[in-house]
Amino acid sequence: MTRKNGAAAVAEPADTGAEAVRGALEGVASHLHPKVSWELDDHPVPTGREEVWRFTPVHRLEDLLTSPATGVELDCALRLPEGVTAGFVEGDAVRAAAVEPPADRTSAIAAANAGRARLVTVPADLELDEPVELDFTGTGVDRPAYQQTIIGVGAGARARILLRFEGSARIADKIDVRVGAGARVDLVTLQDWAPDAVHVAQSSLLVGRDATVRTVQASLGGAVTRMLERASYEGAGGELEQFGLYFVDSGRHVEHRLFVDHNQPLSRSNIDYRGALQDEGSLGVWVGDVLIRKQAEGISTYEANKNLLLTAGARAESIPNLEIATGRIEGAGHSSTTGRFDDEQLFYLRSRGIPEDEARRLVVQGFFVEIVRRIGIPEVAERLMAAVQRQLDAIAPDWGAPE
């Protein structure tokens, strides 16, 4: 078992550090968070040797990186509570409504080729009892799909928003979510794709002053999934919790790259992602990066990632990062753990007459239940655990722990 655990040391930046922070404010790129731009030419076709692409199987994304002009949109079924509106915006209105420009090649292609963006609006001060649901369904992988979705939640609103992806597709996607001052939002994304699906997406979140946002990202299907998840703050006092779970098997690739930009004082973030991996050639990638700017005094942040290896041959890459430009913070830390089954847990269950195969299933369920319970949304928890159970049901009876 390998472990990394600790909090980064903090200090007042030297002149070069201050210059780096000012550069970031002006949009200058770093190796961890490249420059954002609406111009496709600002995002060269990756070779796979770049830092932000080095784990990604770019050879499996060729049509989503070279921008064929013809594509399709996914089917979308909307369930909108009373008061919530939906429509489409095009051209300059898309850029005006979005949180930020594209941050990588595939999201730039999505913006360039989608032609329009779906806009969902929750008005200010509206408190919803029912969730806003967007169910996206792919109908095949023969043609690439391009899509943009923009969600705006007004100041003081209360909302739960569920995005679900299923079926078969090869899609480049861009998602923007704006949360107004004092709003409380639960944002859940469930990727329950068919085994042949490919989904590469950028999800950008803007947390308003004194807003509270909780996100859940679940990747439980598909052949290749690459999620670029970015968050920043519009005002002081914003709070962000990000939970994630992923199940990787049968040679699949699942990659979550998180970037939290603490650009406002007194902001908070807490990240907890967990993955279970099995089968030869399967790869789970989690890269977390928290940037604490010089002006972000009094902030608190922690990022954690845990991976459970179910069989020999599966691999996990877990890389937490902290970039700190001020010592005047409440706290900042990170942890990463990758290992196999807990032998003591298995022994305990087997000593009570539970067969080994069932004992392993219970251990995996417990691994995920611990985080699902923290979500606090019963209907979402039920959906997630049902999806996890489907994954467990597909495990071969002779599965075993890595040697």
Automatic annotation (TrEMBL):
PANTHER family reported in the protein's UniProt record: PROTEIN ABCI7, CHLOROPLASTIC
SUPFAM superfamilies in UniProt: Stabilizer of iron transporter SufD (SSF101960)
InterPro entries reported in the protein's UniProt record: Fe-S_cluster_assembly_SufBD (IPR055346), SUF_FeS_clus_asmbl_SufBD_core (IPR000825), SUF_FeS_clus_asmbl_SufBD_sf (IPR037284), SUF_FeS_clus_asmbl_SufD (IPR011542)
Organism domain of life: Bacteria
Domain SUF system FeS cluster assembly SufBD core, chain residue ranges per copy: 142-367
Entry protein name: FeS assembly protein SufD
GO biological-process terms attached to the record: iron-sulfur cluster assembly
Family named by the database record: Belongs to the iron-sulfur cluster assembly SufBD family.
